[in-house]
Specification:
CATH topology of the largest domain: Beta-Lactamase
Mean pLDDT: 76
Radius of gyration: 31 Å
Strand content: 15-25%
Low-confidence stretches: 1-5
Strand order of the largest sheet: 3-2-1-6-5-4
Order of helices and strands: HHHHEEEHEEEH
Helix content: 55-70%
Number of strands: 6
CATH superfamily of the largest domain: GAF domain
Shape: elongated
CATH architecture of the largest domain: 2-Layer Sandwich
Length: 258
């Protein structure tokens, strides 16, 4: 039985087919034999029939057991992720509560600054474990400057790689109008590789990253800027990261609007 459990699926199917054919051949052999030979052929046919019928059932059992094992593993992984997110974002949630209860702007503004940097650090920690050293992700916040001209300026808050962002997205330029439009719409953008699919107005010499996700930071009543996550290697960010970046942008808007 243990041997059958360890058989690869293709081998098991082959064995089952051979057993079924052999069992069918045993019937005429048993009819032409007598005595102990006939009994041996009948026994062999019974065993082969059992193998032919049992192996497919055994494969179904193995497949079901594998599905159950993967489901259990997925549940454990999801629980671990939820715990990590909760532990990482707890300080930010506490700061948000202090911001909403602050009585004066002098008390509120330092708390907002601490909330912004704390949230960016949380984002880098949760998205960055798969990357190390200079290849890690960078999480940045661009503040909306009403101007004129309107622009998105990199705030002092940037977490990840040592080099902070320097690009200013200015109204009246192709790249600036695109970024400002994203903020106005409350939208987001993911570019898998800026060299393969550069945004309109993109100048590669002004950027030290190859892939990014950008999301508007704002509420229905106000727009505050843009949150970006970038990395230096295509493939470090993917479509599956977009919901989390938008989630971070929503939390950031809550802190800035409190």
């Amino acid at each position: 039985m243990r041997v059958l459990l360890r058989l690869p699926t293709r081998v098991a199917i082959t064995v089952a087919v051979v057993a079924a054919v052999s069992a069918w051949l045993c019937a005429p052999m048993a009819q032409s034999a007598q005595g102990s030979a006939q009994a041996a052929w009948l026994a062999a046919g019974a065993v082969l029939t059992a193998v032919a019928v049992g192996l497919p059932l055994l494969e179904q059992y193995k497949a079901r057991r594998q599905r159950d094992r993967l489901a259990d593993q997925a549940v454990r992984t999801e629980q671990q992720v939820l715990v990590a997110v909760q532990d990482t974002l707890d300080p930010f949630v506490n700061l948000l509560g202090r911001i909403t209860t602050a009585s004066t702007p002098e008390v509120r503004e330092p708390l907002r600054a601490a909330a912004v940097i704390g949230l960016l650090e949380a984002g880098a920690q949760l998205m960055g474990p798969r990357l190390t050293g200079l290849e890690r992700v960078r999480v940045s916040f661009y503040e909306l400057d009403p101007g004129p001209p309107r622009c998105l300026r990199p705030s002092p808050f940037s977490v990840g790689r040592a080099m902070p962002p320097t690009q200013v997205f200015t109204e009246g330029t192709v790249l600036g109008d695109g970024a400002l439009g994203l903020v106005e719409r409350g939208g987001h953008r993911f570019v898998a590789d800026v060299e393969a699919q550069p945004p309109p107005g993109w100048t590669s010499t002004e950027h030290d990253y190859r892939t990014f996700i950008a999301a508007s930071v704002g509420t229905e009543a106000a727009r505050y800027g843009m949150l970006t996550v970038d990395a230096q290697t295509p493939g470090d960010l993917g479509v599956s990261d977009i919901p989390f970046v938008r989630f971070l942008a929503g939390l950031l808007a809550a802190a800035l609007g409190a």
